[in-house]
């Protein structure tokens, strides 16, 4: 084992916590006996019992939350008194993970709590495993939002996150004969110690119904919306603890309930189920993240879900403003926009624009121009994708039925935009009007649809991409006309990650080593890690760094065995691809190479190859058939390879079930190789690439998203770049890409794809894996898997050889950790502050 001596205090803030060991122990025991009602009798309870551990985890969390809630109240009072501008971050996803360890580290209470629990007979690390992940997201979008909230609090900015209080989050994933099976994720079945219900901030949200034009005394008309149904939004606040900071902010999550509990008359008449119908229909809105929208009912539910959370959030933002500054009137327009910023995290919260306009017009008596000017000063929009299918479009008919008033506002926005702004730039140009209109008139089946991304760009004062190459493509490919119309509106903010969770908390061995080498708080000033560059060639430091990596790999082998039954060696290369399952992320490129390696090993068992374990973690959307087919194929290929003694364990494949934040925290510290192989131009940024590199994994990847900027930071000698560039992908498309050319001209590709048609990997079921081959040939291989295969395979060969040079690999791994300073989410937030939000920190110092 590596032993590290720490030579600095991890918290140099003047906001030191006054909670000592004795006080913490009293609080934990108080919650055990009073709040939870457990009777603790020394030497009688079974301390290895799961129920006992859960009770102590719960009590510890509640004791910690007393400190957090006090800091939250102080922060809100301080922010109110300062009258500083606040940012309101609207996101449909937040991948928060578990909170106990992260909060303890951020409060500098981890060591104290560890000692207290040890005195009670428990290991803090074990208790941290008892908490459920706050499963409020799916992938990078939600994890980014969580990192940003952490950084906003750490940097002492006045911020509120807004989202949905999902009962089930996404889903729990397990495998049955290799197939993904989804079950509800009951992350808060018995409540969560971290959340605080705020019934005083409940909102009533109208929808459906009809509108009418009501004549006014002056001869004008006023639009009146009579709603057909009302939903009730009940907020739950989750405190967001800043690291080494005086600030605790809040993430406010909306739970949907019916306006009335049940129909008393129906209940009295014995129609018990129908009496509860209204409540059941309301609860569905916040039941689960991303209901399947392949059918009309699912599409309407998802649309209502987005509107519900936006409407609750906008009303709450206004209510908080009024509580601090008084009534919102047209005269207060400039003041409101100077105190309130609203950031739309992708297109999911777009309806917030229309809801703010509706409230200003219908409830606060704003004139149109005043309302529209205010909205355009308040909103900003982050684009996360160039994929057309991910840029939301909602049928006009859905708006007409569910939000008729919002549709009239949208029409007016569109009409004014086209007639005044588009026509001024391109007079009488119908083609440009069609291209820029918020309404897509010629959609699939000639169904008219609302382009939500267009509305975001038109209404926002700033639009940002999330990596330099992505932002450049947003300007040149996605929104070129908008960029011509407003050349200063589109900008870039490269994503970042919080090093507090993604190194300090999840990789304590490496964190301790960094503490011993860097006489500064690197978890707050991540650029301090660059000091490690001088140690990259130091033999002793290399030995310590790689020994820590080995210990993390040993820990992951135990997790792999427990979850899958598969035995892997910690001495092998751990090659990791962990991210949402999507064709553009190209897990099937990884799979095709694995099949090729297997084929080579069978042809020559003595082939020189350092043992390699390919580790996957991913969930496929329930309605995404090909993504599920890829999961099935990886699992069936893994079954065959892992049980084939002919290849002498040189190759292993592991697909870990139910990928989530807490599992990522175990995988990432153990990874040797980070797979970032999306088709160039398709991945907006990526943040998994940053987390893995920060923990000393070497990237194999395409020149896509933030990979480009990672390569610039670490240098080409410390990364393995492969595949087509963005321009080469475009040229291939323009010249007519034919994947069958690669199939016929590359014998290895042909043999591997033909193998999928057989029953070799699925005995007795020939063709079970054929959908993968069909997608790459008959399906046109839209993400250029076959075009990039040879380059990727060659890069993998170089990687395998490089790993065998232990000094070279250690140097590469150390430099990847040392040179990740740019990718701190604190830097991302400061970029937002400077270029978009213009906030001022509110610190107790």
TrEMBL record:
Give the record's keywords alphabetically. Answer: Carbohydrate metabolism, Glycosyltransferase, Pyridoxal phosphate, Transferase
Q: What is its EC number?
A: 2.4.1.1
**EC top class, as a word:** transferase
Q: Which InterPro entries match?
A: Glycg_phsphrylas, Glyco_trans_35, Pyridoxal_P_attach_site
Where do transmembrane segments lie in this chain?
none
Reading the lineage from the top rank, the first entry is Bacteria
Annotated catalysed reactions: [(1->4)-alpha-D-glucosyl](n) + phosphate = [(1->4)-alpha-D-glucosyl](n-1) + alpha-D-glucose 1-phosphate
User: What are its cofactors?
Assistant: pyridoxal 5'-phosphate
- Record's family? Belongs to the glycogen phosphorylase family.
Would you tell me the protein name for this molecule? Alpha-1,4 glucan phosphorylase
Q: Which organism is it from?
A: Thalassotalea profundi
């Amino acid at each position: 084992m590596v032993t590290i001596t720490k030579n600095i205090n991890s918290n140099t803030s003047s906001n030191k916590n006054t909670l000592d060991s004795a006080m913490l122990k009293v609080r934990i025991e108080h919650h055990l006996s009073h709040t939870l009602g457990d009777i603790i009798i020394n030497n009688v309870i079974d301390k290895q019992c799961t129920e006992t551990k859960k009770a102590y985890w719960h009590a510890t969390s509640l004791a910690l939350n007393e400190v957090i809630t006090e800091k939250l109240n102080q922060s809100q009072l301080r922010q109110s008194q300062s009258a500083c501008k606040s940012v309101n971050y609207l996101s449909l996803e937040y991948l928060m993970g578990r909170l106990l360890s992260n909060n303890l580290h951020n409060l500098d209470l981890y060591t104290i709590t560890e000692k207290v629990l040890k005195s009670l007979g428990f290991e803090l690390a074990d208790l941290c495993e008892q908490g459920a992940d706050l499963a409020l997201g799916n992938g990078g979008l939600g994890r980014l939002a969580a990192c940003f909230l952490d950084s906003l609090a750490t940097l002492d900015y006045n911020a509120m996150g807004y989202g949905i209080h999902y009962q089930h989050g996404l889903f729990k994933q397990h495998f049955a004969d290799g197939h993904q099976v989804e079950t509800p994720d009951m992350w808060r079945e018995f409540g969560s110690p971290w959340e605080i219900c705020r019934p005083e901030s409940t909102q009533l949200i109208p929808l459906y119904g009809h509108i009418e034009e009501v004549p006014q005394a002056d001869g004008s008309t006023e639009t009146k919306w009579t709603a057909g149904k009302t939903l009730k939004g009940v907020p739950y606040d989750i405190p967001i603890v800043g690291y080494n900071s005086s600030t605790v902010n809040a993430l406010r999550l909306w739970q949907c309930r019916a306006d009335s509990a049940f129909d008393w008359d129906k209940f009295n008449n014995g129609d018990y189920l129908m009496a509860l119908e209204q409540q059941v229909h309301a609860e569905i809105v916040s039941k689960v993240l991303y209901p399947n929208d392949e059918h009309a009912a699912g599409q309407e539910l998802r649309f209502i879900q987005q509107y519900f959370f936006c409407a609750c959030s906008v009303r709450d933002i206004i209510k908080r403003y009024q509580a601090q500054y008084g009534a919102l009137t047209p005269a207060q327009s400039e003041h409101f926009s100077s105190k309130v910023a609203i950031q739309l995290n992708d297109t999911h919260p777009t309806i917030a624009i229309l809801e703010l306009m509706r409230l200003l017009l219908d409830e606060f008596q704003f004139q149109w121009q005043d309302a529209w000017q205010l909205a355009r000063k308040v909103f900003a929009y982050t684009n996360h994708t160039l994929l057309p299918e991910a840029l939301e479009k909602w049928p006009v008919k859905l708006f007409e039925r569910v939000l008729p008033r919002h549709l009239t506002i949208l029409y007016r926005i569109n009409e004014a935009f086209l007639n005044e702004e588009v026509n001024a730039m391109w007079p009488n140009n119908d083609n440009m009007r069609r291209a820029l209109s918020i309404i897509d008139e010629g959609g699939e089946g000639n169904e008219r649809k609302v382009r939500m991304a267009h509305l975001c760009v038109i209404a926002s004062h700033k639009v940002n991409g999330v990596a330099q190459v992505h932002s450049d493509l947003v300007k040149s490919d996605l929104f070129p006309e908008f960029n011509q119309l407003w050349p200063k509106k589109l900008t870039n903010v490269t994503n970042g990650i919080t090093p507090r969770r993604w190194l300090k908390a999840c990789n304590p061995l490496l964190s301790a080593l960094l503490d011993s080498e860097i006489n500064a708080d690197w978890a707050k000033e991540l650029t301090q890690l660059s000091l490690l560059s001088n140690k990259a060639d130091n033999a002793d430091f290399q030995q310590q760094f790689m020994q820590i990596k080995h210990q993390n790999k040993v820990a992951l082998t135990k997790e792999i065995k427990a979850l899958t039954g598969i035995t892997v060696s910690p001495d092998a290369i751990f090659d990791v691809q962990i991210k949402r399952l999507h064709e553009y992320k190209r897990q099937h490129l990884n799979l095709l190479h694995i099949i090729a390696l297997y084929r080579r090993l069978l042809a020559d068992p003595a082939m020189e190859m350092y043992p390699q374990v390919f580790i996957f973690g991913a969930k496929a959307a329930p309605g995404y058939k090909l993504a599920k087919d890829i999961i099935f194929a990886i699992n069936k290929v893994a079954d065959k390879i892992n049980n084939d003694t002919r290849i002498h364990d040189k190759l292993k494949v592991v697909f870990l079930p139910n990928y989530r934040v807490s599992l990522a925290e175990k995988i990432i510290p153990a990874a040797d190789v980070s797979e970032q192989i999306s088709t160039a131009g398709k991945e907006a940024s990526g943040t998994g690439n940053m987390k893995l590199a920060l923990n000393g994994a070497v990237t194999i990847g395409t020149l896509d998203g933030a990979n480009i900027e990672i390569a610039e930071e670490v240098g080409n000698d410390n990364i393995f770049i492969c595949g087509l560039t963005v321009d080469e992908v475009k040229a291939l498309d323009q010249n007519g890409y034919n994947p069958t050319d690669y199939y016929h001209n590359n014998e290895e590709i042909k043999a591997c794809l033909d193998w999928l048609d057989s029953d070799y990997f699925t005995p007795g079921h020939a063709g079970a894996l054929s959908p993968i081959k069909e997608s790459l040939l008959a399906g046109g291989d839209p993400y250029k898997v076959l075009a990039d295969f040879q380059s990727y395979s060659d890069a993998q060969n170089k990687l395998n050889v490089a790993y065998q040079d232990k000094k070279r690999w250690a140097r590469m791994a150390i430099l990847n950790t040392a040179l990740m300073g740019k990718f701190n989410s604190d830097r991302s937030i400061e970029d937002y502050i400077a270029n978009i939000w213009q906030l001022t920190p509110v610190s107790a110092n």
